[in-house]
Design goal:
globular; Rossmann fold; six-stranded parallel sheet; 2 domains; binds adenosine-5'-diphosphate; 480 residues; 21% strand; 18 helices; 20 strands; alpha/beta
Length: 480
Amino acid sequence: MEILFLSSEVQPWSKTGGLADVAGALPQALAQRGHRVTVVSPLYGGLDRSAPTPVSIGRSVEVRMGDRPYVAEICEAKLGQVRWLFLREDGFFARRALYGEGGRDYPDNGLRFAFFSAAALEAAAAVGSPPEIVHANDWQTGPAIYLASRARGGGARPGLVFTIHNLAYQGLFPPNVLAELGWPERLFNLHELEFHGSVSFLKAGAVYADQLSTVSPNYAREIRQPEFGCGLDGLMRSLDGRLRGIVNGIDSSEWDPRRDRQLPAHFHAADLAGKARCKVALQKELGLPALADRPLFTMVGRITPQKGHDLLLAVLDGPGRELLSRAQLAILGSGDQGLERALLAKARERPEALAVRVSFDEGLAHRLEAGGDFFLMPSRFEPCGLNQLYSLRYGALPIVRSTGGLADTVQDAAPDLSRGTGFAFRPPTPEALWEAIERALAAYARPAALLALRRAGMAQDYSWEASSARYEEMYRETSR
Ligand code: ADP
């Protein structure tokens, strides 16, 4: 099949979260299954310099929005069997960040990503054969599904697939964005783009797609309920047989403890000596005492209430007051400034046991997975989650709230530790999180059982092979 894959971020060029990992890996897995895949993404100002440089192909596309024309230059980068296209429009994309700065979204995000969506469809048409499938991801490319659904012209219209990586981000804009884009005002109704007085780009993707997916079967069920539906549970229920959950894979060459370039030592399930060396090196890197036998808990991710950093802080000030006397804790992330400040303040109080790094640091993320004994993901909701999959592979037992993809991928340890791949808890409360951490501390005191749990986790296979076959099935079901 000829597949056009649209994403506002793509690893290794740009990344704020799991979407980039998926956009970097799934297209390659599809190409390996024999499909022709073109990925289109914006050319941002701060692309990762270690990634292959996108070079202009000497062509551009023009998109009219309202009464103004905008032009994107088409660039291409070479990597593997996928065609990677980048659209350059510096006024929109040559900025310091992808979506906003200082905790605030850029005010023209509606124009930026509607432009990107429209220009991506034009660029694909300009450079190659017309796609059989347009696969858009999250609100940023929702407009592409709407635009492709009403495209006229010769030939069959492509199958339209929309994947929701996180329903909490909906791309909401004031109603006058429709006039700015030159889209019909009549779209502003509950059955199409309106969401409580705003225009929703996520609805533009969800309403007009032939098939939809989200990133785990459990999250696909959860978002049909008010608790997780973010106001769209009714729409999600109405999608019926068109919405499925496909669990994310991981890029198993990038995340491989046997040869990861970011690690000071390597290891595998049969020989974990290298993991012990990673732990001591990590403690030194973070300025923590290099105590090989002290349990080390790590955490990586966007710092937001979603990810439960506040729950962890409440544990440290409440039921788990003793945690930092019994264990070390290392946290990497950035995001919510109030939570960042609270975590940094706590680290200043207990520098011998708590290290907090507020930054985006790919290398350190790998070393925290490799050096950690336990990996914390107390998320309030988690569409799929990638970090728990990395930690399974790196022998860091995940401690997760049993929600979304975390519930699908981590098996709670049995009370006698005879089975399981991590520790799960249910209510999003400090008490429940502390109870799971206490079980982990108890397991740490039983080295043979702990090793068996680590090995069970390391034996899990979350590569893209199986998941890309499920995407392929979904593509086939779009042909009406
Ligand atoms: P989400 O997409 O909700 O942010 P995921 O767990 O699905 O969460 O994916 C997050 C990805 O981003 C992982 O690959 C994780 O390692 C990475 N990541 C998040 N924050 C950071 C950070 N501060 N430094 C390095 N990598 C990070």
